[in-house]
Design brief:
Elements (H helix, E strand, L loop, with lengths): L6 H34 L2 H7 L2 H22 L5 H9 L4 H22 L4 E2 L2 H7 L5 H6 L1 E4 L11 H6 L13 E4 L2 E4 L5 H17 L1 H15 L6 H15 L7 H10 L4
Parallel strand pairs: 2-4
Antiparallel strand pairs: 1-2, 3-4
Length: 264
């Protein structure tokens, strides 16, 4: 077992994390290839017409990696507590109340920031055109707060009083999307703008009510902002963009795919 007090172990830990990042990038590449399959072909057609040896090797590799990473997950400190919390379903009334309040909050913030919103700069728009529809890019607005911060929603205090912890730290987030307005606590960056526009597409396809319901349920089930499927998908897509901006893909198609498969 490694120890930070040992110089050789510290070097090995750094190397281990570098290898893990490489593995993550390779896995994201495999996920993109699989998503392309999902978009074009049904599972029935793949099972029936795919080259049997290639398909079996792909299934075996995916199964082995799944087994390996699940075995690691079970050893993460606190993993058991998270699993137990996930098994305890959140209160239905709490979900309904929080969903309604979050929807009202998003609409209010959108209307608050929209008058100060600016159209996307021309060079950013040109860069993002291969990934988003012209309609969305025309409609989207951005706001830079220049040192100010987005305050926490007013209903946070009540949620904390009811035992809901680890709420998203909105004041420390790079940006937040309010329907079609992306507000930056910090300076606008290409990756953060891409991330915000992914959420704008999710709002466009799902609608505010369904988006908020899925987000609230996802958060209360996992007690983690980063693992909410809506958020995890946005991170995955902005990572894909950051790795290779020249590799164009349709964010709308990706979001519709996840909606169709019930992955949100």
């Amino acid at each position: 077992m490694f120890s930070w007090t040992d110089q050789k172990d510290r070097v090995a830990i750094v190397q281990m994390n570098a290898e893990l990042r490489n593995a993550q990038l390779e896995l994201l590449s495999a996920q993109r290839a699989t998503d392309r399959l999902r978009l074009r072909f049904s599972t029935e057609d793949i099972a029936r017409y795919a080259a049997r040896d290639v398909l079996q090797k792909a299934i075996a590799a995916a199964g082995a990696m799944n087994h390996y990473y699940l075995s690691i997950e079970k050893q993460i400190p606190g993993a058991d507590a998270v699993a137990e919390a996930a098994c305890d379903p959140p209160d239905r009334q709490l979900i309904l109340e929080t969903t309604a309040r979050m929807g009202d909050y998003l609409r209010h913030q959108r209307n608050l920031y929209f008058p100060a919103g600016k159209p996307l700069p021309g060079h950013h728009r040109a860069m993002l055109q291969p990934f988003f529809s012209s309609g969305l890019l025309d409609r989207a607005r951005f706001v830079e707060l220049n040192g100010a911060r987005i305050p926490a929603p007013p209903f946070y205090s009540e949620l904390k009083a009811r035992g809901i912890t680890k709420l998203p730290e909105i004041t420390h987030m790079h940006s937040l999307t309010f329907l079609d307005v992306i507000v930056f606590n910090e300076k606008l960056s290409e990756r953060a703008l891409f991330h915000g526009l992914v959420h704008a597409v999710q709002f466009q396809i799902l609608g505010v009510e369904r988006y908020t319901s899925l987000f609230v349920r996802g958060f209360l089930n996992t007690n983690s902002h980063a693992t909410v499927p809506l958020e995890a998908h946005a991170f995955a897509l902005d990572s894909r963009f950051a790795q290779c901006p020249a590799d164009a893909f349709s964010v709308e198609e990706q979001v519709r795919l996840w909606v169709k498969e019930g992955r949100y």
